[in-house]
C-alpha cells in the first residue's frame, strides 16, 4: 500500500515498519508483522527442505526396487517355461484324442506364442541382473546400503545367476594421486 504525502506526514512522527505490505505504526504491530514474516520464511524453508530431500538419491530404495525387478523377471521366465510345458501337454492330448483340427491349431498357436516369450523374458531377466550388478558396482559403498540385508540379498541373487559381485577397490579420495616434485600432471 502506498501512502500519500498527507498520510506520511501524519505518521512521520511515529515509528513505522513495512513488511509484506503491512505498515506497522506501533511496537505491537511491528512485532506481529515480524512474527508473520518469520512464519512465512519458515514455511518457505520447510518446502525447500522437502524438495531437496526428495531430490537426494535414495540408494537403498533403488536397491530394493532392482532386487524386486530381478525376482519378478526370474518368476516370469519360470512362468513361461511352465506355460510351455502345459501347452505341449495340451497339444499332445489333443493329438492323441483326435480332436478337431481347429482346436489343435489354436493350441499349437498358443504353444508357439509361449515359445516366443521365453527368449524375450530371458533377455529382460539378464538385463535386470546386469542392471543390478552395475547399480551395486556404483552404490555398494553408499552409507544407506552398506551392511543391509538387501545388499546381501542382491549379492546372493547375482551369485545365483552367474555374476558374483566383488566390490572394486575403494576409489581414491580427492587429491589422492600424488605427483613427484616437478612432475606435470
Please specify the SSE layout and strand pairing.
Layout: H1 5-11, E1 17-19, E2 22-24, H2 27-55, H3 59-97, H4 101-139, H5 149-160
Helix pairs in contact: 3-4, 3-5, 4-5
Care to describe what's here?
- This protein has 185 residues and is mostly helical.
- The protein has 5 helices and 2 strands; from the N terminus they run H-E-E-H-H-H-H.
- A two-stranded antiparallel sheet has the order 1-2.
- A hairpin with a 2-residue loop joins strand 1 and strand 2 (22-24).
- The chain is elongated.
- The two termini are 62 Å apart.
- Residues 12-22 and 170-176 have low confidence and may be disordered.
Please give a handful of descriptors for the protein shown.
two-stranded antiparallel ribbon, 5 helices, mainly alpha, about 180 residues
Question: What's this model, at a glance?
Answer:
This protein is mostly helical. Helix content is 68%, strand content 3%.
Q: What gap, in angstroms, lies between the N and C termini? A: 62 Å
* Total beta-strand segments: 2
Strand content: under 5%
Work out the helix count.
5
Amino acid at each position: 500500500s502506498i501512502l500519500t504525502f498527507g498520510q506520511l506526514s501524519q505518521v512521520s512522527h511515529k515509528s513505522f515498519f513495512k513488511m509484506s505490505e503491512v505498515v506497522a505504526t506501533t511496537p505491537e504491530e511491528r512485532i506481529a508483522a515480524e512474527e508473520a514474516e518469520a512464519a512465512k520464511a519458515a514455511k518457505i524453508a520447510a518446502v525447500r527442505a522437502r524438495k531437496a530431500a526428495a531430490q537426494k538419491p535414495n540408494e537403498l530404495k533403488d536397491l530394493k526396487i532392482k532386487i524386486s525387478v530381478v525376482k519378478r523377471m526370474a518368476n516370469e521366465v519360470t512362468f513361461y517355461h511352465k506355460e510351455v510345458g502345459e501347452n505341449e501337454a495340451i497339444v499332445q492330448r489333443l493329438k492323441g484324442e483326435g480332436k478337431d483340427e481347429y482346436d489343435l491349431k489354436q493350441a499349437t498357436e498358443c504353444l508357439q506364442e509361449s515359445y516366443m516369450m521365453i527368449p524375450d523374458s530371458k533377455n529382460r531377466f539378464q538385463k535386470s541382473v546386469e542392471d543390478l550388478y552395475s547399480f551395486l558396482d556404483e552404490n555398494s559403498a553408499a552409507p544407506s546400503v552398506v551392511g543391509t540385508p538387501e545388499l546381501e540379498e542382491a549379492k546372493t541373487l547375482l551369485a545365483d545367476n552367474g555374476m558374483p559381485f566383488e566390490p572394486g577397490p575403494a576409489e581414491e579420495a580427492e587429491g589422492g594421486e600424488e605427483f613427484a616434485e616437478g612432475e606435470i600432471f
